[in-house]
Structures are given as structure tokens and as C-alpha cells.
Amino acid sequence: MRKKKVVVIGSGVGGMAAAIRLAVQGFKVDVYEANDYPGGKLSGFENKGYLFDAGPSLFTQPQNIEELFELAGEPIAEYFKYSSVDVSCKYFFENGKTVKAYTDKERLAHEFSEKLNESPEVIKKYLSAAERLYENVGKIFLNFSLHKRQTWLHKRVFKALASVRFSYLFATLNQHNTSKFKTNEAVQIFNRFATYNGSNPYKAPGMLSLIPHLEQNQGTYYPQGGMISITNALYQLALKKGVKFHFNQKVDKIVHENKIIKGIVTGDKKVDADILVSNGDVYYTYKNLLNHPSKSKQLYKLERSSSALIFYWGIKNEFAQLGLHNILFSKNYQKEFEHLFEKSSIIDDPTIYINITSKMEKNQAPDGSENWFVMINAPVNKGQDWENIKMQLRKAVIDKINRMLNTDIENYIEAETIMDPVLIEKKTSTFMGSLYGTSSNSKFAAFFRPPNFTSEYKGLYFCGGTVHPGGGIPLCLKSAYITSEIIKEDYA
Fold it and tell me: Each residue of 14-38: pLDDT tens digit?
């Protein structure tokens, strides 16, 4: 009997994970990628001896990757190594306060007590509630399709519903956090977790208070070789399982007859397929590949997540006060999000995230130097004057770093590359350059996020950051799991 052929569009982590899972199931799998490299946003580059991860920089839930290697029957240690990180992030405030977010609950509680005068018991109680919320509710939302009837008929759903409190749904994350902590600094730290899916903590529901569980309770990790090593490991595993990759092969059209998938068109050739998995932006898939104006118009109305503006700086100096992950907070956090989501602009005092992988591996930068990944939350691309924005923001970022770290950072910048929402959109084909597809700025956002399948086209499925359960490495890997399980059930 002929093996059914699967074509995966896009080689982001979700696409590669889906390809691996489907190959293990026995399908013949080909991946078509417009770029000349795998990984999508999870890529890397070198500039003047400095190594940079281009996209995601935080690594949590390594079990999602371990599960793939176990499923494939391959020893992960031959492909991928990682280590735990004691401090998930170091937070800096304009009032001079600094807080280390330890990944040990007791140490974290002590730090918040010593630096912010927050009750240790309140911190521990908050993280315990985050764990319960994740275990009871999060695991359903993140591991199963919300658009399949059998998900809601399972007995675990009743247990989950019983654990949902009013504040998780009907209060914003900021309102939830304000009711728990007495200091603005603690509220700001825990509000920040809304940005993990590109959302606004002043509008997103309190349900997002489960996110700190992934970082603070389960732990933060560093992959040896930087985040690009995740891409390299999944790519090698996919090849080992017989997946074929076709780079520089942009998919131009999805072919179907009577709403039954028949294949794709790339360049001047047609490629046959029984099953199609789009790891690309779901909006672009409907608009450009399926030429489906009514569906694309429906998706267009959904609010996008935030984007990013990133400065990749080679710094010819070392800063002992910084760690792997660092945050320099804005003075007015609420105003920052008003600008992002309501004015489609960036405040003149933005929150700055600095990731420095040379803190973990010296070979990521020349001797006596550091590789700085400096990211600012940005609105999606709506045709703003990005050249002017970049020029103004660069000065604002340098001024803020100089003020808060008591330095003159510009004198140390000897390599620079800049990424903006326009380039993100161009390089990754993500609509408007949004990093996480749609935002979670409403209590029903999870249900509005597009599903991993469609009943309109037989043989068409979706995975990745623009469909359920959302963006970011852990959720993209879970999306691949959900999609592959639906395909397994459909083609059993």
C-alpha cells in the first residue's frame, strides 16, 4: 500500500516537529521552505565574531523536545544538550531597585521579601496557584484542540472548570496581580508575563497568571550553543526520520479539487500531496495560498499580537551586573501598552530586554566582549515610518541603558544589526510582523484563535504560532503535537 504523502509548508519549529511526528507515524513527509535555512524565527547569524540568536531567546519546558526524541527512538544527548539556569531574569527599575527572579521558589520568595518587602508567603502562594491553574486548566488548553467535541466531553474538563476562579476570567492580569501584591514592582514583574504571547496585561485575562509557572516553577534552561541549537537538533532528527527538506522553494498556491487537497504549486512545478500542513501564518495561507477572501477577511479582524524591534549589538566590554536574561523596566508600563495596542507606536521610555548568551558560553563573543540581543516590544507593521522610529528608539534605548547601568554603551558597540516588524514580516511571512499571531487581549481570545484543522478542505491542517494554542517555542511544539494527533485520528 502506498504511503500517504504529507507536505509541510514552512520549517519553523512547529513545522519540523509536525514533520517528525508524522514521519514516525509512517507518512512520507516533505517540507517546503521559502528561506535557504530551517527554523523560521528560530535562526541565528554571526557578525564580526559575535554569534546571535535571531529570534526567541528564552528556553523553557525542555520536555517538549525530549518527547520528540523519545518518540523517534533517538538519543537526545547526541543531538542536543542544555543546562538549568538559576536566575530566570534580572529586573532593573528606574528607582534603583534590582530583583533576581530565582528559579527556586524559596530563594525567589526571599528575594522579593528582601528587595521589595513583599511577603514570602504571598509569593509562594501565587506560584502554587499558577501551578494548579496550569495543571488543571492549562494542560487542557495547551494539549488538546478546543475545536473538537471530544475535548469537552472528557471528565478532566469538569475538574478544570471547577478550578477556574472569577479573577482568572473576568479580571485583567493587572487587576489580578494588583490584588495579590502590594508593590508596583512586583505587579510589573508579574504583568510582564502577558508579553510572552504578545499581549497587554491591562486587557488580557488573569488566566495568564499561569505563565510564571513555566519559568519560575518548572525552570529556565539554556541550550548549549544558543537557541539555534534547538533548530539544528530538530532538523537533524527530521532528516534521520526520512523527512525531505526543499529550501528556497516558496509555496505559491495550494491545489484542491472539490475542496479535497491535491498538492501545492511552487515556482513552475506542481507537487502532489494527500495531506497538507501549513506551518505558515494562517491568514496568509487563506489569503495568498487558498485565495479565500471571506475567510481571510474574517481572520484579518482578529487583533494581532505585538511585534518587536531588536538591536543585535556586539559589545566590546563585559558587564558583571547583567545576567543571561535582563529587563530594564519602563517607568509607566500601562502607557507603554497603550502606545503598542492603541496608538501603534512605541513610548519614548520603553521596557528593554537584554539577552546575553556569552554569559553562558564565552565563545559566543570575542574575548572580553558580550553579544547583546536588545529587544523592545513594538506594534505590528501598519505602514509606520520605521526608519525614523528606529533612529529615535536607538537613542532612547542607549540613553536608558546609560542611565540605569551607569555607562556609555555606544562607545562599546562594534557590531550592529537591526530587526524591525517589516523585516520580521518579510523573513517569516507573519502577517504585520506579529510575533505570536493573534493577541490574548480578551477573555475569549483562546477560542477565537484559529484551529489546527478545517472542515472546509479535506486534508488541510495547520500548526505553529498563529493557530491553537499560540506562539512561542513551547506552544508551537504543542501545536505540532495537537495537529499530528488529529491527522493520526483522521487517517487511522
Answer: 999 999 999 999 999 999 999 999 9
Residue 149 — pLDDT band, cuts 50, 70, 90?
confident
- The amino acid sitting at 151 is T
Runs of H (alpha helix) within 285-344: 293-300, 333-342
Please state the separation of Cα 451 from the chain's center in Å.
Answer: 18
State the Rg of the chain over Cα: 22
Enter the C-alpha cell of residue 315: 559589545
Residue 140: predicted pLDDT: 79
pLDDT tens digits for 33-73? 999 999 999 999 999 999 999 999 999 999 999 999 999 99
CA distances from 154 to 40, 42, 128, 151, 158 (A): 35, 35, 25, 6, 8
Residues facing 147 on adjacent strands: none
What type of residue sits at position 195? Answer: T
CB atoms within 10 A of CB 445: 22
Average pLDDT, the chain: 95
Q: 150: Cβ–Cβ under 8 A, 6 or more apart, which residues?
A: none
**Which residues are CB-neighbours of 399 under 8 A, at least 6 positions away?**
none
Q: Which amino acid is at 445?
A: A
Tally Cβ neighbours within 10 Å of residue 344: 15
Are 84 and 100 in contact by the 8 Å Cβ rule? The answer is no
| Per-residue CA distances from 17 to 13, 43, 97 (Å) | 6, 16, 41
C-alpha grid cell, residue 330: 519602563
Rounded to whole angstroms, how far apart are CA atoms 250 and 248? Answer: 6
- Does pLDDT of 158 surpass 80? no
Question: If pLDDT is split at 50, 70 and 90, which confidence band does 283 have?
Answer: very high
For the record, the C-alpha cell of 300 comes out as 484579518
Of the candidates 312, 282, 321, the residue with the CA atom closest to the CA atom of residue 298:
282
User: Can you point out the beta strands (E) in 387-476?
Assistant: 413-419, 460-462
Q: Are 413 and 401 in contact (CB under 8 A)?
A: no
The C-alpha atoms of residue 452 and residue 475 are separated, in whole angstroms, by: 12
Alpha-carbon gap, residue 464 to 14, rounded angstroms: 5
The pLDDT-based confidence of 247 (bands split at 50, 70, 90) is very high
Dig out the grid coordinates for 46 from the structure. Answer: 554571526
Q: In what order do the strands lie in the sheet with 251-257?
A: 251-257, 260-266, 269-272
> CA-to-CA distance for 348 and 390, rounded, in angstroms?
12
Helix, strand counts (H, E) of the chain: 19, 19
Bridge-partner residues for 8, per DSSP? Answer: 31, 277
The predicted structure's pLDDT at residue 155: 64
Q: Rounded CA gap, 3 and 476, in Å?
A: 26
| DSSP-assigned letter for residue 214 | I
Cα–Cα dist 440/448, whole Å: 9
pLDDT higher than threshold 70 for residue 233: yes
